[in-house]
Amino acid sequence: MNFVLKILKDFPKYIWSGWGSIASIFLFFSLWDLGNQIYGNLVLPSPKETILTLVSIVTNNETITNIVITIKRAFFGFFISLIFGSLLGLLAGLFVTASMMSRPIVTILVGMPPIAWIVLAMIWFGMSDMTVVFTVVVASFPIIFVGALQGTRTLEGNLKEMADSFNLSFKMKMFDLYFPHIFSYVFPAWISALGMSWKIVVMAELLSSNEGIGASLAIARSQLDTPTALALVLIMIGSLLLIEYLILEPIKREVEAWRD
Q: Looking at the domain assignment, is residue 24 inside a domain?
């Protein structure tokens, strides 16, 4: 409870520290407008036209429904990967044999293109939610697994010996020594996996679903509706930024305060 209250108390600090990111966003919009002036509306609609389109589709109930469907699929697949990837990665890090046995499996999962998994999932599960969720899990699982594995494997033996020599309790070992170190590896992996999940879910929906943001992108592509396509892209990017900077980043700073 105190942890949550501290995050809420220091929340303005996190917002203030994001001004550099906001400046880069404005620079991006400036370059975008320059591209519009060079290539025209068909290739790259202006930011103003895209934002007006964004407002119009966001007020549409069908768009809201598609956004909710995409978010559910992405987070469901992400949380499955987070739970199993973290637990199996920690276990593999504790045992050298398990670490060596998992290496070729992770290599296969990382090396195989997501589009190939989507095609296989379409054959196995058809045009269903399972196809999208399965692809998200397969794409994000190895990222979390490797982060947890590295965090466990890099625990220094001297640190363990020191904890044993001072007869520290199991609780102190876990939460004051081991957890901060492992979390510094696992949390960035979670963020990377979340970004991967968000990209993969849209790709899978575009190819294998009639619902969600990806399906809406497929319709916009077929109709050469560039403003709508860009507006949907802005929705995806904005959602990911809100999740990362308003939820994940404050948690990361509080948990990693021991580094300062």
A: no
Listed in sequence order, the residues at least 6 apart from 118 whose beta carbon sits closer than 8 Å to its beta carbon are 131, 135, 203, 204, 207, 208
pLDDT along the chain (260 residues), means of 10: 54 55 79 87 84 86 88 92 90 80 81 86 87 92 89 67 62 64 81 86 88 89 86 84 72 61
197 in Cβ contact with 52 (< 8 Å) = no
Is 37 domain-assigned?
Answer: no
Question: Which helix (H) or strand (E) is 177 found in, with range?
Answer: none
User: Is 93:152 a contact under the CB 8 Å cutoff?
Assistant: yes
CATH number of the structural domain spanning residue 230: 1.10.3720.10
DSSP letter for each residue of 64-88: HHHHHHHHHHHHHHHHHHHHHHHHH
**Structural domain containing residue 149:** 46-259
